[in-house]
Specification:
Blueprint lengths: L17 E4 L2 E4 L2 E4 L2 E7 L4 E4 L8 E5 L3 E4 L2 E8 L8 E6 L6 E2 L21 E2 L21 E2 L13 E3 L6 E2 L11 E3 L6 E2 L12 E3 L6 E2 L12 E4 L5 E2 L12 E4 L6 E2 L15 H4 L1 E5 L3 H5 L9 E5 L15 E5 L2 E5 L1 E8 L4 E8 L2 E4 L4 E7 L2 E7 L2
Parallel strand pairs: 5-8, 6-9, 8-10, 10-11, 11-12, 13-15, 14-16, 15-17, 16-18, 18-20, 19-21, 20-22, 21-23, 23-24
Antiparallel strand pairs: 1-2, 3-4, 4-5, 7-8, 25-26, 26-29, 27-28, 27-30, 30-31
Length: 387
């Protein structure tokens, strides 16, 4: 059965533009301290959130303190407010351990932001919170995180080489990590549902590990993840949305642990025949539990696989590793690949550019400037030809 999603509100309680004062509701009191503007979120509780600057935009390196003094009282900083740093030129932001919420669009389009540590204690990251932060690196998501917003990290190309989702996170919402540059993904033990476009066009993703509680993967969730060669779906997974793995042109092995074939659209593993002459259904082997091959072969989606093999699924799904990523260099539009064995080069839109076998080194002439993905040794790297 299809999983539905409810988008997180842009303004949570701690991210409100109004503050409770006495028995009524009034405009939030704000003040500036140490060059940072704050809005009072609770006068009685003495809490504030970082607010958008009313003067010059924030810039450079910012350190947010745990507490700040105002009117003879100390206030605890518990949130980064709605659009607080959006479109600013901040290069780094140090957050205190008291932060529990990063509100909607808090760091949206902070192109100059390069690195940030998210302390444990953060329970919610709102819609668009880091959307468009194309140079941002985050080593880990906080273990305390339970709620993630729509497009929270969309377009964070440099986010992390390896991303593991915290066990407290139950749903990955739509576009949460689309166009990100991670090489490996572990959805953790808590995630039950992955939303529409959640990891779309993560070209560099070479491996993915799904937890044993996963129930559904919605439409286009992994579309364009051409670096994936193997996926393993747990027995708990009962639904794959339309084109969930569309244009995953590198897939060679699909393992499904459920004895009853999961609901799936006939084009779940489809490709563009104009750019990829060999469909995934022809090149990949489908592994299914013993005794279930007939059921899979009769299914509108799974029955398209030309090679269906019964196998034992006696334990939790094991996850494949990958070899070393290929080394690439550019001289104008001339791409040099240092690798041994089979390689492929794709444009960012999935077009196949070149394919061959490298014996230590191979050279490819790119057709034009743009972003390209190089696959070799079970790994993928992204390179930008700018001149």
């Amino acid at each position: 059965m299809k999983k539905t999603f409810t988008l997180t509100a842009l303004l949570a309680v701690a991210c409100g533009a109004m503050a409770q004062t006495g028995g009524g509701v009034a405009e939030a009191e704000s003040f500036v301290a140490g060059g940072i503007r704050y809005s009072v979120t609770s006068a009685d509780g003495r809490t504030v959130e970082v607010a958008k600057s009313e003067g010059d935009p924030y810039a450079g390196d910012i350190v947010v303190p745990q507490t700040v003094a105002h009117g003879g009282a100390d206030y605890t900083v518990t949130a980064i407010g709605y659009m607080a740093f959006a479109s600013s030129t901040v290069t780094s932001v140090e957050l205190p351990a008291t932060i529990g919420n990063i509100c909607g669009s808090a760091f949206q389009d902070c192109y100059h932001l390069t690195k940030m540590e998210l302390p444990d204690g953060i329970v919610e990251i709102g819609d668009y919170a880091f959307e468009g932060c194309s140079n941002l690196e985050i080593d880990r998501l906080p273990a305390s995180l339970t709620t993630l917003g729509y497009e929270a990290f969309e377009g964070c190309y440099c986010l992390a080489d390896s991303l593991t989702l915290p066990d407290g996170l139950k749903e990955v919402p739509g576009d949460a990590f689309s166009y990100c540059g991670m090489e490996s993904l572990d959805t953790g033990d808590g995630v039950t549902a992955i939303g529409t476009n959640a990891f779309r066009d993560c070209y560099s993703m070479a491996s993915v590990t799904f937890g044993d509680r996963l129930e559904s993967i919605d439409a286009w969730a992994f579309q364009g993840c051409s670096g994936l060669e193997k996926i393993e779906l747990p027995a708990s997974c009962t639904y794959l949305g339309p084109q969930a793995f569309y244009a995953c042109t590198g897939l060679k092995e699909v393992r499904v642990a459920a004895t009853t074939p999961p609901e799936a659209d006939p084009n779940t593993f489809g490709v563009n025949p104009l750019t990829t002459p060999t469909p995934v259904y022809a090149q990949a082997t489908l592994y299914v539990p013993r005794g279930s091959r007939e059921a899979y072969a009769a299914h509108a989606c799974w029955g398209q696989f030309e090679n269906i093999v019964e196998a034992d699924f006696t334990s939790s799904i094991a996850h494949a590793g990958a070899g070393a990523a290929p080394t690439v260099s550019l001289a104008g539009l001339t791409l040099t690949i240092s690798a041994n064995g089979h390689y492929r080069v794709f444009a960012a839109d999935g077009r196949a550019i070149a394919e061959g076998t490298a014996q230590g080194k191979a050279t490819v002439q790119l057709p034009e400037r743009g972003v390209y993905v190089v696959e070799a040794g079970g790994r993928a790297v992204k390179v930008a030809a700018t001149r």
